[in-house]
Input
Amino acid sequence: MPISRPKLSIRKKLKELDSQIEIQVGNLFDFQGAFVIGCNTAFDTNTNIGMISKNSLQGQCISRFYHGKISTLDSDITKELKNQSFEELTDDRSGKKKRYPLGTVVKLKNKNKVFYWISIANLNEYGSVEDIDFEVIQEGLTKLWEKVKKSGNIDPLVIPLIGSSRCRIKKSRTEFVKAIIESFVLVCKDKKISEKLIIVISPQDYKRYSINLKQLEEYLICRCNFPDLKEST
Output
């Protein structure tokens, strides 16, 4: 008797638009496209001082694509932030001293790869995340799509459940997936910004939080078929 394997991918085309949304269980960097990476508002990059975990997606991005060339990465980030306002930090933190507004996005290119780093959390002087609301993530997604509109092309976008782990927000992983779908559908009503959005759920999260892909598939189908509906409806 054949073994029934769980469905680990979902895809749906947006109505009347040559663009689709996928939900995939897997490792972020195994997919092809421009990667979205969550970071803190100081855009810290040094994984050796405790501000950035080497195991985080940001830490993996630095190790995998910059191979320890932090000066190159910092130079690219500085160029992107040259016209951005910032707050000068005066505490004794080990990381960077300039704090940019939540939702600030920088576009980076390295080794023929494109990355959108989006600042989703303030860190205190000890490297812990200060309290933020779910609305910060939702507003950040809107700013992300605006950045893609201005500086990107229509290549696939690969996004994790940004803010779902270290930010300590009391929302389920399912709600994070829905927030990404909702914001992308809304922005695509005005302009196509990507051929494909790939929302990646890590295998660890999929198992640990018993994420119901069938439920997410029903939500995805509804939002893609009826993009004008409000979420509450």
Notes: The mean pLDDT is 91. Residues 134-151 form the longest helix (18 residues).
